[in-house]
Specification:
Layout lengths: L30 H38 L4 H33 L5 H33 L7 H31 L9
Amino acid sequence: MARILFRPALLTVIMLSLALSTGCSGLLGGPYDQANGLVDEANEAIEEHNRLFEEARVAYEEAREAIEAGEDASGEAERIARARETMQEAWDELEEAREPLSEVQALDVELEIEEYARSLSEAVDAQISAEGQEIDFYELLEQDPTLENGRTEAQDILSEVDEGYEEAEEAYERAQEIADANPELLRERY
């Protein structure tokens, strides 16, 4: 039976939970309204990212299981290609979340909110890097679905991917610590 590499599920799939407004959100209001609008924008991209990320991982798992069950590996290359394309779309959506998060950091808001946004930006950057490497893994797998010739390279890529996801998770945890320590700043103000 052909064995390819198992991709564990990402432990932290991001979704922001920042609500800062003193009224209704919008990009034309004060800094808190702007921050809310920017976070809403980032959340939309992240929500689509999460959907596509899960879709890509499911396609990969189906291909892996089929190959390990002895099905024609060359036939699974198409499913792996779809997983790669979907992961690329997810990566693109995560890229779109990066800009609004950096704009929150430039607003005239409390330091804790800037630190929160900075930690989330660091997490997104680390996750973008890891997902880019995961796309490289899928490309390698497309060419060699059973990894007969590329197992060592695939393992090296996945080691880097795992390190990137760990870095992202640590940054998400830092952001959560800031949110937990400052609940009055990171919830709706009415």
